[in-house]
């Protein structure tokens, strides 16, 4: 099946799709009460082996499927394997019934070692995280949807809400295209990142709206070639490169572009955060065409993440270099609109560049300023508040 057809399917659904070709054929009930986990598992196994008629898993509209943890493992024969979600999938909401209750970090829907996968449709995935937000995160399920060691993945047009923690996790994967998705969780829900990417290359997130209790997009150690474009972010904690280098780990984050993004009422906007004592680099980062509306830290580099209140300058640190901030405007909800706090004299931030930055105080703030330490670079055009370079 070619990509054009996949897009068509995402837009139109499969008009001729009958229940006999969907998860219903495998015994799913879809009343939101009966647990349909085993029907989905069987539907996946058949589709993956190439023995289902359409080489796909189909979740029909108008039904609600209650599901416990599901492990969708490849490699699969159809390339791409289509997973069409037009109905609603809801996670088991009872912590007692979760994954036999033995281990809290069992993910909900995990795709593992699948090369060529298109998950498309107008459906809704609901993590029913409410019952977990109030209990210790040690007992939480894992992310709602995980891609682990996958390649050539398209995730399109779906809606996600109320994850117990991260909504979408991309790890150890390549060529992942996320387009036109919506993620929502309450502002007060803990650790509900929108999309977290780690140890992956060539990932793009386009035309998506994310409003959660944590980062809209967060980026872990070892990520190369990521584009985040045309996104509305907020409420939440913004786009965060990091936290990186925890416990002295090796960081290699490169080639990240965040453009055409609106941050509304978020705690951060363009953020890079590293733990003291990490090694490696963050370089080739670009933030371009960004609007802030009442954002607490619109532009921030924090190389002392996680060490407060006893932070000390260290000889080691993740080297941040070649970061470009261009065409960024809007309002800051705190006085320090631009904060660049780099590791120290032995590992300063280098080659930072700013052009056309115009930040003004949000209602209730008199003025805005910038604060920098060990940040070196250059600036062009209007820079408000004054840059430190
Ligand atoms: C993805 O597709 C490309 C081109 O068809 C192929 O070369 C590659 O091996 C596939 N897998 C991954 C993991 O990128
Ligand atoms: C990201 O954008 C750059 C520049 O437009 C492009 O060269 C690169 O291929 C894109 N990467 C992905 C994963 O879409
Ligand atoms: C993102 O969307 C824009 C505009 O709609 C489009 O030009 C661009 O190619 C898309 N990027 C990717 C990686 O799909
Ligand atoms: C960001 O906000 C502007 C102004 O309201 C709007 O024109 C633009 O479409 C928004 N961007 C996205 C990705 O929706």
UniProtKB/TrEMBL annotation:
Is Manganese found in the keyword set? no
UniProt GO BP: carbohydrate metabolic process; cell wall organization
Q: Which family does it belong to?
A: Belongs to the glycosyl hydrolase 28 family.
Its recorded name reads: Parallel beta-helix repeat
Gene Ontology cellular component terms for the protein in this record: extracellular region
Q: Which organism is it from?
A: Arabidopsis thaliana x Arabidopsis arenosa
Localization per record: Secreted
Protein keywords: Cell wall biogenesis/degradation, Glycosidase, Hydrolase, Secreted, Signal
Enumerate the GO terms in the molecular function aspect: polygalacturonase activity
Q: Secretion signal: which residues?
A: 1-20
């Amino acid at each position: 099946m070619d990509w054009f057809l996949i897009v068509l399917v995402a837009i139109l659904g499969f008009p001729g799709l009958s229940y006999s070709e969907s998860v219903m054929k495998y015994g799913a009930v879809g009343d939101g009460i009966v647990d349909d986990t085993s029907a989905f598992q069987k539907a996946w196994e058949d589709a993956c082996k190439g023995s289902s008629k359409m080489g796909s898993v189909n979740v029909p509209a108008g039904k609600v499927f209650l599901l416990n943890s599901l492990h969708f493992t490849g490699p699969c024969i159809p390339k791409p394997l289509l997973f069409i979600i037009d109905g609603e999938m809801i996670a088991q909401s009872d912590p007692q019934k979760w994954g036999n209750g033995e281990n809290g970090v069992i993910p909900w829907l995990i795709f593992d070692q699948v090369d060529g996968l298109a998950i498309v449709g107008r459906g809704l995935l609901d993590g029913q995280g409410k019952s977990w937000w109030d209990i210790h995160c040690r007992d939480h399920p894992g992310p709602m949807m995980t891609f682990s060691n996958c390649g050539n993945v398209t995730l399109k047009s779906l809606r996600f809400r109320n994850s117990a923690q991260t909504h979408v996790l991309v790890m150890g994967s390549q060529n992942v295209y996320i387009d036109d998705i919506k993620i929502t969780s309450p502002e007060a829900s803990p650790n509900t990142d929108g999309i977290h990417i780690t140890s992956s290359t060539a990932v793009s997130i386009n035309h998506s709206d994310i409003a959660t209790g944590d980062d809209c997009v967060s980026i872990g150690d070892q990520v190369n070639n990521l584009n985040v474009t045309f996104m509305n972010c907020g409420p939440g904690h913004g786009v965060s490169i990091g936290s990186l280098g925890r416990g002295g780990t090796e960081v290699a984050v490169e080639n990240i572009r965040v453009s055409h993004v609106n941050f509304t009422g978020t705690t951060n906007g363009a953020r890079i955060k590293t733990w003291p004592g990490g090694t490696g680099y963050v370089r080739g980062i670009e933030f371009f065409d960004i609007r802030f509306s009442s954002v607490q830290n619109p532009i921030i580099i924090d190389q002392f993440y996680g060490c407060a209140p006893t932070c000390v300058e260290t000889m080691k640190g993740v080297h941040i270099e070649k970061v470009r901030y261009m065409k960024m405007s809007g309002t800051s909800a705190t006085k320090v609109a631009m904060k660049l706090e780099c590791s120290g004299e032995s590992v300063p931030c280098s080659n930072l560049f700013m052009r056309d930055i115009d930040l003004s105080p949000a209602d209730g703030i008199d003025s805005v300023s910038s604060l920098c330490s060990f940040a070196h670079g250059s600036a062009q055009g209007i820079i408000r508040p004054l840059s430190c370079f």
